[in-house]
Design goal:
The complex is a heterodimer of chains A (about 400) and B (about 500). Chain A is built from 13 helices and 18 strands. Chain A is of the alpha+beta class. Chain A is globular. Chain B contains 18 helices and 18 strands. In chain B, the strands form four sheets. A seven-stranded antiparallel beta sheet of chain B has the order 15-12-14-13-17-18-16, sandwiched between helices. In chain B, strands 5-6-10-8-9 form a five-stranded antiparallel beta sheet. A four-stranded mixed beta sheet of chain B has the order 1-2-4-3. The chains are: A alpha+beta (about 400), B alpha+beta (about 500).
Chain lengths: ~400, ~500
């Protein structure tokens, strides 16, 4: 077992080339906060990329920031906040959920896992804010893709491919992202006591209104009973007006309460970090992406076979589950409940044994699996980068 | 522009190939006569023309699949085509390749308001989607200026933009799912009504791939609720610098306008003469800033934008007080291309994106180039996202003017890349910017992009001659340059 810590791209390319020559895979690690995410790796070597850190360029008026891939997210968020800006895709901090002992997460980790918080429904995921990168492929070759401007269609969009690739295609060294202004004010309109179907209906009502929601979630297990929450953000006068109008529009679902800035912030950070499921450490935690209207039926189907706790984000489109007991953490039942092409389920938290035994990521159709393997061939033919983290053959 | 040498043997087999394709799609869906093929000889980039081998117009996914499987077996090249409005030659035909036209895929299959999406066929026009959902108060956000004609399939291929990108994103941020056909005829689905992918984001890769990776047969787009209000401010500036500073200050103040367009003096004069929008003629630059959303927000932000503009030295600032007035402000900008077409026999438009702060430099540089090449240039500019649209005025009937124009355009693009920008913000590379790819990307960068192409289309049958200046064989690109047994882990700190 060796641990390599390159400090420049040339050293990094040499290490990957050596791994390639010996066909000895590397596990890419920076902050290590998400090391328990994905299929467990058994690699002879660790590639510590923390040498690629630091903000390289930040121009608030251009809405872009470039930083070393291992720059701690805390640092980036602090620097952005000083200019009243943010990463609008609201990446979650899953350390508590995963029971991680690693340090804080890094920009590279957030991009490689394509994180997205409650604001996903309005502002997109990491993929939608990822403008360019430099890196070294599994062929040991340095290359770059994308650019440093917010609008670019020059060449293939390799950023989309790298976002969510879990380090299986290239080791990123520098990343450029789009940033956006921090909202001046935030209000949350909260309804109580709705069941799943009514909650999803209420969220659809809110999302289809003209009040520009930036979050819609349902917490069935909140203390004091089920809570359905919808967020409005923006300039203060606008937010006041929209929150009041939204509350009125939702009258048919009950009398809603409006939460102010501080309370809203706490609530949405909790949702972002999946805190409602972080307290018990045993359940297998799943993140299931479906069409919002499909969520209530999915949940009732799962109830027949599984014992679980849950909450809904993305207006119903994201189902967070914590499944108790069962040999496979509920994998079989959950996957069977998802019809082909109707969504995808990812095992976010599970023991190493469970993550080795079941497919952590959504199984692919044979044609898409074959295509994905050919793409991997193009970037990392000998499978030296995070071999097997995403799928056994990738 | 050098295209791959057409294969004479394939051209000689035209009738035989036509007969084989007729057996798949029916006689009426294969165009063989030269007169009828001529309608397809170019797209929106009319400087380049070529007669396609044949034009095939399938009407079902199954037909597309069978046509592609046939071409794959027979080693025939395919150029996919939507509405043919590409400004970069993305659907420029090949003499030894078929045009695979998706114009018959013109149906809207499902409007799902509860999940805020629409399932449509790729031949539906961009505006056709908005037209279908407008009565329910929804719309499809990306709005390229060709939206009345361009198809959503073409938008997916080109990752089309429009004037509202800064706030609402490009096509890639507004597509949820695709059905597509791979080169061997395999039909796959990517995404759906849900968000994000399980596995690699192949949907994200397909958007903007310029017809080189597969043929899209169904698209799921995101629908957005129409903003209740939109108001615009029309601001004149005594210099390009002050207009540029105003754009930076608006964004620096945390305001993301739904549209922020700038015009330089030649553009202002050309459009004012044409549409009489009431633009001031005594200014060097004009900004249109549009805010949309709930009335409380729009009214609040309009005031702040006005304030910022005055601080930046605006000379004249008009706020739209009615929908009619707002439309009038836009009328000039939207007519910029035809207005320039009125004062010059031909014009040529490129679309590099720059870091906005470099705008004054670039405009000065363009003025120099204008003298050097003896050609006039007018600028309209998506100021919000830094996407330039210089219109170079020329006369194709004068010897060497097109050539000089292209050199002029290339110089602009090269300079934009030099200052940290990119070759194209929304029109695509196509054939137009193909040979400039090396300005922005190293050989290693381009090789890696082509390896993605190889994963989808190892024989290079889909839209060859586009995007990449040099085509390498996939076998050569796949070769690993490692010295077995010789390379050791370098002598680096280990822990």
């Amino acid at each position: 077992m060796s641990r390599f810590r390159p400090t420049d791209e040339k050293q990094l390319a040499e290490i990957v080339s050596a791994a390639l020559a010996g066909e000895e895979p590397l596990e890419i690690v920076a902050g290590g906060s998400k090391r328990g995410l994905g299929r467990p790796l058994q690699t002879p070597h660790t590639l510590d990329v923390t040498g690629f850190a630091g903000i390289r360029q930040y121009e608030p008026e251009e809405l872009v920031l470039s930083a070393g891939a291992a720059t701690p997210l805390d640092e980036i968020e602090r620097v952005l906040a000083a200019k009243r800006q943010m990463l609008a895709f609201e990446p979650g901090d899953w350390r508590a959920l995963l029971g991680s002992t690693g340090q804080g997460q890094t920009l590279g980790g957030v991009i490689a896992c394509n994180l997205a918080g409650p604001r996903r429904i309005r502002q997109g995921a990491a993929r939608d804010h990822f403008l360019g990168f430099h890196g070294v492929s599994g062929r040991g070759e340095a290359f770059k893709a994308g650019g440093r401007v917010v609008k670019n269609v020059t060449g293939y969009d390799l950023c989309k491919l790298l976002a969510g690739s879990y380090g299986t295609l290239a080791v990123m060294t520098e990343i450029t992202v789009k940033v956006l202004p921090l909202p001046e004010a935030t209000r949350t309109v909260a309804l109580k006591g709705l069941d799943d179907a009514r909650a999803v209906a209420a969220m659809i009502h809110g999302l289809n209104s003209s009040h520009e929601l930036s979050g819609a979630a349902h917490l069935p297990g909140a203390s004091g009973g089920a809570l359905t929450v919808m967020r409005v953000e923006g300039p203060a006068p606008s937010v006041e007006a929209r929150a009041a109008a939204l509350r009125d529009d939702l009258k048919i679902f009950g009398n809603a309460e409006i939460l102010g800035d501080a309370e809203s912030l706490k609530l949405w950070v909790g949702l972002r970090d999946a805190s409602p499921l972080a307290d018990d450490k045993d359940g297998a935690v799943w993140r299931v992406s479906v069409a919002p209207t499909a969520a209530p039926a999915l949940l009732s189907q799962l109830r027949h076979a599984l014992d679980f706790r849950y909450f809904l984000d993305w207006g119903g489109g994201l189902v967070w589950l914590s499944v108790k007991g069962g040999e496979d953490g509920g994998a079989h039942v959950i996957r069977a409940a998802l019809a082909q092409d109707q969504g995808h389920a990812t095992l976010i938290r599970g023991s190493a044994a469970l993550r080795a035994a079941v497919s952590v990521f959504q199984p692919l159709t044979p044609a898409v699996a074959a295509l994905s393997a050919r793409i991997k061939d193009g970037f990392d033919p000998k499978r030296v980068l995070n071999r097997g983290r995403l799928y056994p053959e990738i | 522009m050098l295209m791959p040498t057409p294969d004479a043997a394939t051209i000689a087999r035209r009738s035989e190939i036509a007969a084989q394709l007729r057996a798949i799609v029916g006689a009426a869906a294969v165009i063989e006569s030269e007169d009828e093929r001529r309608a397809y000889e170019s797209d929106g980039l009319t400087a380049y023309r070529a007669l396609p081998l044949l034009v095939v117009l399938p009407s079902t996914t199954e037909e597309v699949s069978r046509v592609m499987a046939h071409c794959h077996r027979e080693n025939l090249k395919i150029v996919p085509r939507g509405a043919g409005t590409s400004l970069s030659g993305g659907s420029l035909p090949l003499e030894d390749g078929i045009i695979l036209g998706l114009s018959k895929f013109n149906r809207i299959l499902e409007l799902d308001y509860d999940n805020r999406c629409a399932v449509v066929q790729p031949g539906v026009t961009n505006l056709g989607i908005t037209d279908a959902v407008e009565d329910k108060g929804f719309y499809y956000a990306p709005d390229p200026s060709s939206q009345i004609a361009c198809s959503i399939g073409g938008n997916v291929a080109e990752n089309s933009g429009g004037v509202h990108c800064l706030k609402y994103g490009l096509t890639t941020n507004n597509i949820l799912g695709l059905e597509m056909v791979l080169i061997d005829g395999t039909v796959i689905r990517l995404g759906g009504k849900h968000l994000d992918a399980g596995g690699y984001d192949l949907l994200g890769v397909m958007v903007g791939s310029e017809g080189l990776l597969g043929v899209v047969t169904e698209v799921i787009v995101r629908l957005l609720r129409k903003p209740t209000t939109a108001r615009a401010v029309l601001v004149g500036f005594p210099s390009n610098e002050s207009a540029g500073a105003c754009v930076a200050s608006i964004i620096g103040a945390g305001i993301i306008p739904s549209g922020m367009e700038m015009m330089d003096k030649p553009a202002i004069h050309a459009v004012e003469d044409f549409v009489h929008a009431g633009y001031p003629l005594d200014v060097e630059a004009l900004l249109i800033v549009e805010l949309d959303g709930p009335p409380a927000e729009v009214d609040h932000l309009i005031e702040r934008v006005e304030q910022i503009a005055r601080q930046c030295g605006a000379v004249g600032c008009r706020v739209s007080n009615s929908e009619q007035e707002r439309t009038l402000f836009w009328a000039g900008r939207k007519a910029a291309f035809p207005a320039v077409g009125r004062i010059s026999p031909d014009y040529y438009c490129v679309d590099p994106t720059i870091p906005r702060a470099r705008l004054p430099d670039i405009l000065n540089y363009m003025a120099e180039l204008s003298k050097k090449y003896g050609l006039r240039v007018a600028n309209v500019f998506h100021a919000g996202d830094g996407n330039l649209h210089p219109l170079i005025l020329y006369d194709a009937n004068k010897p060497d003017e097109l050539e000089r124009t292209e050199l002029f355009g290339a110089d602009i693009m090269k300079y934009c890349v030099e200052v940290g920008g990119v070759l194209t913000g929304e029109h695509g590379v196509g054939v137009e910017k193909r040979d400039l790819m090396g300005v922005m990307f190293s050989a290693a960068d381009l090789d890696q992009q082509q390896r993605l192409k190889c994963a989808f289309d190892p024989q290079g049958l889909l839209n060859p001659g586009k995007v990449f200046p040099q085509l390498h064989r996939c076998a050569e690109l796949g070769r690993l340059h490692v010295h077995h047994g010789k390379v050791r882990f370098p002598d680096l700190p280990r822990f």
